[in-house]
């Protein structure tokens, strides 16, 4: 069958027009009308990931983070992503990005992250989710999150003994805007996300709002089993492989 059948499954679950305005989801290289041989799923494209696709006879790579974000003015092989995409193209491998559309989808990464960190009564607020936990201290909750997402480098803003009940979260890099903090501070006791900018951290500290900062990789690695399940539920005969990669932070 054509590669497009797999892309249709993903876009039925997470329509591409639901991506956020700044995002760059969709085809990065390839011909989706080629006959599918196998699928490899990854968070980030690299030459190693493309090599894994070749070795597993996969001619479709589903990446989470778009490998092309800004317009190119030159094909400069000094950049690993350029080399990766050329390697994919030279081996007739299609690369497709599913990013904020799959974050935002019902039962997508945001919902899976909220469930993973124990939220109940979850609702959607802006780009994120808000839910409840049984009364617990900030320090205790951070330790629980660290265990369930296998992250040993959790950071906390706020008093460790603060009691937490209402929790906001955004999987991935949700800590970049002060407006996000001001919005969630009205409705929750703590914000769980990754990549918190210093000015955002300072604002949170100054207004007495708590943040639990987790690693981006650990917050989004559920992308792989999510996409694998989507494909297997529709086409169980199609071979799907997880791209083997590691958190860039040590």
Describe the structure in your own words.
The chain is an alpha/beta fold. It has two domains: 99 residues, NIF3 (NGG1p interacting factor 3)-like (Udp-n-acetylmuramoylalanyl-d-glutamate--2,6- Diaminopimelate Ligase, Chain: A, domain 1); 111 residues, 3-Layer(aba) Sandwich (Udp-n-acetylmuramoylalanyl-d-glutamate--2,6- Diaminopimelate Ligase, Chain: A, domain 1), CATH 3.40.1390. The chain is 36% helix and 23% strand. It is built from ten helices and eleven strands. The strands form two sheets. Strands 5-6-8-9-10-7 form a six-stranded mixed sheet. Strands 1-4-3-2-11 form a five-stranded mixed sheet, with helices on both faces. Helix 8 links the parallel strand 9 and strand 10. Helix 1 packs across helix 10 and helix 2 packs parallel to helix 3. The longest helix has 12 residues. The radius of gyration is 19 Å and the shape is elongated. The N and C termini lie far apart (41 Å). The mean pLDDT is 96.
Globular, elongated, flat, extended or rod-shaped: what is the shape? Answer: elongated
Report how far apart the termini are. Answer: 41 Å
Kindly identify the CATH topology of the largest domain. Answer: Udp-n-acetylmuramoylalanyl-d-glutamate--2,6- Diaminopimelate Ligase, Chain: A, domain 1
* Spans of at least 5 consecutive residues with low confidence: none
Classified in CATH, the superfamily of the largest domain is: NIF3 (NGG1p interacting factor 3)-like
Structural class: alpha/beta
How many domains, in number, for the residues?
A: 2
- The H/E string reads HEEHEHEHHEEHEEHEHEHHE
Share of β-strand residues: 15-25%
On the 0 to 100 scale, the average pLDDT is 96
| Count of DSSP H/I helices | 10
By DSSP, the count of extended strands is 11
Radius of gyration: 19 Å
Helix proportion of residues, in percent? 25-40%
Largest sheet: 6 strands, mixed
At the first level of CATH, what is the class of the largest domain?
Answer: Alpha Beta
CATH architecture title of the largest domain: 3-Layer(aba) Sandwich
What's the arrangement of strands in the largest beta sheet?
5-6-8-9-10-7
